Amino acid sequence: MSGRAKRIVYEVCVSVFGLFAVAGTVLVGFFGVVQDANQMLGCSIALVVFGLFCIFLPVSTLIHECGHLLFGTVSGLQFVSVSVGRFRISRNGIRYVGKQGFSGETQMLPRSGKRVRLKTAFFALGGAIFNLVFGGVFIALFFVVPIHPVLFFFELCAPLNLLEGVAALLPAELDTGRTDGKVFSEIVADSDYSKVFLAVLTAQGILLRKSFQNIPQELLFNLPVIREDETAFLALTQLRWQYSFMNQDESGAIEQIKRLESIGDYCPDTLTRAEIECEFAYVHCVLFSDNQLAETHLQEAALAKETCQYHMAVYAVNGEGENELRSAIEKEKSAGMKELYTAQYDRARRQKKFCHKAE
Fold first, then answer.
1. Residue 247's closest CA among 256, 259, 235?
2. Nearest to 215 by CA among 226, 225, 229, 205
3. pLDDT at 352
């Protein structure tokens, strides 16, 4: 079956389950309000609150991401960030990422290179399982426990949670990325995509506590070929240029950064794109000595103003904000990235001193 046919089957299945979920929600709302006249006001308020959540922040998405967090924590993964809709929550606070709709994403990394496949597969299923358990439990409570306004709110959310769980488990590749079921199936099948995806996670996990020197070269460079529009390939290319830079392989770093520029439009959100634009600005100034193009990239990086990458680019291009950059480097929690930023800062500073002497 072709990719287009699979997408159509997925959309049909989700549409059918969606109709059942909407019908279930309507029935729960109707019978909940009329079941007990004494709770009419409370249940009506619960209905209004539920409607507001559906418009602004679906409970099913929050439950789904909580499931990923729980399963990831239990399996030994380390929290990086949670994105819901247009915002991302991380150890650095809340940031606007520019994604459309109510899609969610939880990022967690392995603390070591051991059993990464198993841990990631378990983590991938966590969101859907949480949705299904939540939905099943509150549907059951609706039939066995007297109506209460607070409980009624969660019972209203149950059908949509069941829909979210089923939709996540169906294996499909969408415009927003792979479903959890698709990720799980590829990990089980040990596909080329899963090999690259797991290699990226492993390398990023190593950098949390260690340096680029602790990443085996074959982990990043001895991998199968996957499509260039895959987010895993984008992350891999970014790691490759950083790895080459840290190993004083300037020609390799330039080759990888050029590759990264050619696929930059595949960035999943505007914040990630802005962060990569910061790297482009730095490289064009420091490695290519093309300040004009570097300034152009810096202008495209405005959304990443609070990041260390942005402070690095500003210092490299304009020679400004050195104190802010040093402060941002000190606050960086990833040992490997802190080492990278320190090396980039030293390289930019040496170049600026050389330019001043030449003048």
1. 256
2. 205
3. 66
202 near 223, Cβ under 8 Å?
A: no
Angle at 227 between CA 222 and CA 233, to 5 degrees: 55
Asked if residue 267 lies in contact with residue 261, where contact means CB atoms within 8 angstroms, the answer is no
> What is each CA distance from 10 to 56, 162, 270, in whole angstroms?
25, 16, 27
Would you say 270 and 286 are in contact if contact means Cβ atoms under 8 Å apart? no
| Segment (H or E) for 218 | helix 217-221
- Whether the pLDDT of residue 38 is over 80: the answer is no
Secondary structure class of 3 (helix, strand, coil)? helix
User: Which of 173, 171, 161, 172 lies closest to 61, judged by CA?
Assistant: 161
Instruction: Tell me the two tokens of residue 263.
Output: 């696929």
CB-based contacts of 11: which residues, under 8 Å, 6+ apart?
none
Burial of 211 (0-12, 13-18, 19+ CB in 10 A): middle
From the number of C-beta atoms within 10 Å of its C-beta (0-12, 13-18, 19+), residue 153 rates as buried
Which string of b and e fits 304-320 if b means at least 16 CB within 10 Å? beebbbbbbbbbbbeee
pLDDT the model gives residue 264: 86
Q: In whole angstroms, what is the distance from residue 273 CA to residue 313 CA? A: 14
Give the type of residue at 317: V
For the whole model, what pTM was predicted? 0.89
The answer to whether the CB of 26 falls within 8 A of the CB of 158 is no
DSSP string computed for 171-197: --EETTEE-HHHHHHHHHHT-HHHHHH
Rounded to an integer, what distance in angstroms lies between the CA atom of residue 220 and that of residue 175? 26
What is the C-alpha separation between 334 and 323, in angstroms, rounded?
20
Rounded to an integer, the average pLDDT of 152-173 is: 94
Identify the pLDDT of residue 5: 81
The single residue listed with the structure tokens 């050619």 is 262
Instruction: Give the contacts of 82 (CB within 8 A, at least 6 positions apart).
Output: 65, 69, 88, 89, 90, 104, 105, 106, 107
Bridge partners of residue 82, in order along the sequence: 89, 106
